[in-house]
Structures are given as structure tokens and as C-alpha cells.
Amino acid sequence: MNIIETHNLTKSFGSVIAVNDLTISVRRGEFVAFMGASGSGKTTLLNILACLDTFTSGEVFIDGHNLAALDEEGRRVLRANKIGLVFQQFHLIPYLTALENVMLAQHFHSVTDEPAARQILGDVGLAHRLHHRPGALSGGEQQRVCIARALVNEPPILFADEPTGNLDEENECNILALLQDLHRRGRTVVLVTHNPDLAARADRIIRLHHGKVFEP
């Protein structure tokens, strides 16, 4: 069963077509990498699928929900309930602890649940760093807080946009191993990257070039 589908999806910015008549699908529980050079449309596509941006024409379905039928509030609710987001930039609140950063995501979703926040931080290997602020954490630890924050509300889909771009090789391997473990547990993982070594960790690679699927 597909959890993500697009049909003839197009996104243009004036005369520039970022996503061009794109039809793709991702199965529930699959680990897929969107790969392409800068300007290929991969980040624009992610922003549409993650309900962060609208599109010009076509259809998009996320876990059975037709995005064209949703207004801004409807997209916000769908994003809160169905989607976890991990970015290259960590976007952590610097004066909050790791635990508080994760609980903030709970607050914006519904209600805070400290035991659940502690549990998810433990799951990503940070049980001993709950009360450290971002400035006292390594880059890899900060990214794991971001993954915990993305997962704490149990979304079925995790989007990761260049999640290892600011990390050294050791932390890159740790984050990728964590994403693969989440996939093995049944999570749908969509990785956006320009790095072929990272993309090779996925079940399937969708290559984009000028907003279209590229078949080399």
C-alpha cells in the first residue's frame, strides 16, 4: 500500500518549473532516497510532500489524504499527525535542554508527556544527555535530538533533508544507522540527499533531474 503518491505533480515559480509533471509513489514502511544535484527539485518536492508548501497542479496523497482538498490549517494538522521532519540545520532552541526541545514538539502537537519524551531520547542513545542544552552537545547528538523531536508524536512518515550534511564521518554513520533501524521497525523513511553513498543505504533511489524522474 502506498503511503505517498503524486500524479502529474508540478510546482513552478514564475517561469521556473521546479517539479515537472512528476508521478511517483512510496510504499508504507519503505526507505526511499530522493537523489539529485542542487536545482534538481528534490527539496521543493520534499516541502510539498511534508505539507510545507503548495503546488501548482497535479495531485498529492499522503496516507490517503488529498492535499489539494486541504486548506492551510488542514495541512498543518496533517503535518502534525503524519509527518516527522529532520533537517540539515538542527533548529533546536538553544536555551532549552534536549528533553525540553522534544517536549516542545509534544506541546505543539497536543499535550506534553515527559516519560514519552525521555523514552524517545533513550531510544536514540541520549538517556544520559537529557538535561544538556544544544551548546553542550556534539553535532551528532544535536541531530539525534532532532530525530527524537521528529519521532516523539509517532508520525508514520519521517522526512530527512540532508540530515548528515553538518556531521563528521563517524556521526554520519551513526545517524544513518539510526534511520535504517527506524525503517526496520516499520517507519516510512524518505531521505533527501545529493550524496550517492548515503542514498545507497535506502531500499530504492528516485533520481531527480530538473524536476523529473531521471533514469540513467
What can you see in these coordinates?
This protein is an alpha/beta fold. It has seven helices and ten strands. Strands 6-7-8-3-9-10 form a six-stranded mixed sheet, sandwiched between helices. It has a four-stranded antiparallel sheet with strand order 2-1-4-5, covered by helices on one side. Helix 4 packs across helix 5 (139-151) and helix 5 (139-151) runs parallel beside helix 6. The two termini are 27 Å apart. The model has no long low-confidence stretch (mean pLDDT 92).
Beta-strand portion reads 25-35%
The average pLDDT is: 92
Taking the sheet with the most strands, its summary is: 6 strands, mixed
Question: With helices defined by DSSP (H or I, 4 residues minimum), what is the helix count?
Answer: 7
Structural class: alpha/beta
Strand order of the largest sheet: 6-7-8-3-9-10
Cα-based radius of gyration, to the nearest Å: 17 Å
Approximate helicity band: 25-40%
Low-confidence blocks of residues: none
Question: What is the N-to-C order of secondary-structure elements (H for helix, E for strand)?
Answer: EEEHEEHEHHHEHEHEE
Question: N-to-C terminal Cα separation, in Å?
Answer: 27 Å
Number of strand elements: 10
**Envelope shape:** globular
